Each structure stands twice: as structure tokens, then as C-alpha cells.
Amino acid sequence: MLLVGFPGSTADAHSQVVVDIRDHGLGGVILYDFPAVTIDNIRSPAQLKALVATLRAAARIPLLVSTDEEGGEVARLGPDHGFPATVSAQWLGQRNDVAYTHARAHAMAATLHDMGINQNLAPVVDLNRNPNNPVIGKLMRSFSANPTIVTTQAIAFIEAHHQLGVHCALKHFPGHGSSTADSHVGVVDVTKTWSSVELEPFRRIIAAGQADAIMTAHIFNAHLDPTYPATLSKATITGILREQLGFSGVVISDDMQMGAIRKAYGFETAVLRAIDAGVDILTIGNNSPYVPGMVGSTVDMIEGFVTSGRLSAARIDASWQRIRRLKGI
User: Fold this and answer.
1) pLDDT mean across residues, the chain
2) Contact at 8 Å (CB) between 9 and 41?
3) Which of 14, 105, 106, 233 is the most exposed place for a label (fewest CB within 10 A)?
4) Where are the alpha helices (DSSP H) in 74-146?
5) What CATH code is carried by the domain that includes residue 251?
6) How many of the other CB atoms lie within 10 Å of CB of 103?
7) HSE (CB half, 13 Å, CA atoms) of 163?
8) DSSP 179
9) Helix, strand, coil % (nearest 5) of the chain?
10) Could you read off the pLDDT of 77-115 as tens digits, one per residue?
């Protein structure tokens, strides 16, 4: 139930992340290229392939190896490290050629597959309702403001990945495209800007059977939940995503270290609220320096929630069953 970031471009049997995978059952890692915070997992194709092979060899059950390879501005495997160039979702949406999108996504998925990466935290299916949005519109991460274009482009992107055995994660539920601020920094309130049309790409892709996993947004919307942001909201995740939209796959949180969560709630409360809301996999991405014992202590924390009655064992098992289906075990 954890997807964890870690610093460094190499690993061996004594590396903390390897110990956590091997000895504590860590089920997923997320790869970044953030040298400013020393999360520098990606330097070259040969280096990355060797790193991923080491991590996967340590796993007792199949390991989710994830990255954000959306294309354009958000592409961890970039030309500066020897990988092929990619284009943004906005560029693809403006061209609106499904066959072309499929071809570009297939090339992207081939690169991921060759590196041993089996989950792309993409595509973004947020509607481009605010072109000045600092984290979506301005970075050209959205295919379009039109839900039909977003849906057809996203499905082409996903199908290309599936052909090479790479899972995808739609993001950011229930829609981040209308926001005016950055949830990496603090709480983002979309109560006045969000519209139910932002659910349409999620609804249509789920109905098409193409949604492997869905990532939540750390956005607050009083119309959906007057108390909690989406990642911590049972009304949003269980009520809307699962019950109204019929999604039975894996729900992944956006990074639990982001300011919108970390500053407002603290880690322990956020973990409890997220799992209770319906999150299956908690992302702990901005995790540098890597804290020895962090994975084990988080597992112990979740076990404590169960033994104290704050979470049920059935709730944890439901997540495990969804994760098993995603991993094919």
C-alpha cells in the first residue's frame, strides 16, 4: 500500500530501499529526477535499467515501478539523460489525431518497458479549464478543455501502454484543471471554479474499461466534501469515484508529502484519513533524505489503526485485493 521515492541512482543489497523491498514488503517505488532535493534516480538509460533490475530482484511479489512520463514538461526520462524527446498532452490534444497519439504513446511506453518500469503515472485527464493554472494549464499537461477530446486522447495513450504491459494512472481526480494555485505548496480550494464536467473523462474512461488506477488530487471542494480535500475525502473517493462512477480499481494518492496535506494535517492523520476515504496506495514521493525505518514505521502505524479499531482489517484487505489484481497475482 506504499509507493515510495528514494534518493540515489544506484542500489545494492545494503541500500535502505532494497532492505525495505526485501524485508518489509515495500510494494512500489516512484522514480524521479529532482537533483535539487537529491532525488536523482535517472541519469542514463544503462544506469536506470540496472537500478530498476536491482529493485525488482529484491521483491518477493511483483514490484510496482512508477514514474511520471506524461510528455513535454513533465517527462522524467528526458533527452538530457539520453532518452527520446516527447511532446506534451496539450500538443497532442491540439493535433487531435488518435493514431498519432497512439504512436507517440507507444514509443514512450516502449522506453518505459525497456527500463523495467511497469506503471506510468499518466495520462492527465484534467480539463484545461484555466490556461493560467500553474500546475496544469501553464505546463501544457492537459489534452484539452473538451472532455471528448481528453477522453479519446487518453484512451489512445492508455491502449498504447497496455500493448507493452505498462499500467497507467489517470490523474488528478476529481479534476485539477480549474485550480488557480499549486497543491504542492498548500491547500488549493476549487469550490468556486470546479464543475461536474471535470468528472466526465474519468466517467467515460472507467466505462470503457481502460482505467487501471486513478490518482487523487489534494484539492478542496466544499460542494463535494465540506471538511476534507479529495485525497482524504470518503465522500469523494468512496461516494463519487467508487459508488457513482463504478470504479473498482486501485486508487493512488498524490504525494502525501505535498504541502496541501503535510502542512494542514500531519502525516499520521493524513494516512488514516486517506485509507479510510478509500485510497489503496499512499505515495510518499518527496522522501529525501530517505528516512531509515520510515516504511516499517508507516506499516506499524497502519497496523495500529487496525488493532485500535480506527480501521478495519476488511478495509486493508480490500486494498490488497485491488493491488493484487493490478499486479496480476
Assistant:
1) 94
2) yes
3) 14
4) 89-95, 98-115
5) 3.20.20.300
6) 13
7) 15
8) -
9) 45, 15, 45
10) 999 999 999 999 999 999 999 999 999 999 999 999 999
In 3D space, the residue among 292, 235, 284, 304 whose CA is nearest the CA of residue 1 turns out to be 284
Given a contact cutoff of 8 angstroms between Cβ atoms, the answer to whether 278 and 293 are in contact is: no
pLDDT tens for each residue of 303-316: 999 999 999 999 99
Let me know: does 288 contact 7? Beta carbons within 8 Å.
yes
Judge whether 264 and 258 are in contact, CB under 8 Å: no
What confidence score (pLDDT) does residue 294 get? 86
In angstroms, how far apart are the furthest CA atoms of the chain? Answer: 54
Residue 170: which pLDDT band, with cuts at 50, 70 and 90?
Answer: very high
Judge whether 156 and 174 are in contact, CB under 8 Å. no
| pLDDT tens digits along 230-243 | 999 999 999 999 99
Query: Pairing relation of β-strands 167-173 and 282-284?
Result: unpaired
Query: Helices marked H in the chain — which ranges?
Result: 16-24, 45-57, 89-95, 98-115, 147-162, 200-207, 234, 259-265, 267-277, 294-307, 313-327
Range of the domain at 54: 2-327
Q: If you ran DSSP here, which 8-state letter would residue 9 be given? A: S
Indicate if the alpha-carbon torsion angle 235, 240, 244, 245 is positive or negative.
negative
Q: What cell numbers appear for 32 in the block?
A: 524521479
Sheet holding 28-31, edge to edge: 250-252, 213-216, 167-173, 119-120, 64-67, 28-31, 2-4, 282-284
Cβ proximity of 108 and 182 under 8 Å: no
Residues with active-site annotation: 184, 254
72 and 87 Cβ atoms separated by less than 8 Å:
yes
- pTM exceeding the 0.85 threshold for the entire prediction: yes
User: How much is the pLDDT for 105?
Assistant: 98
pLDDT for res 285:
86
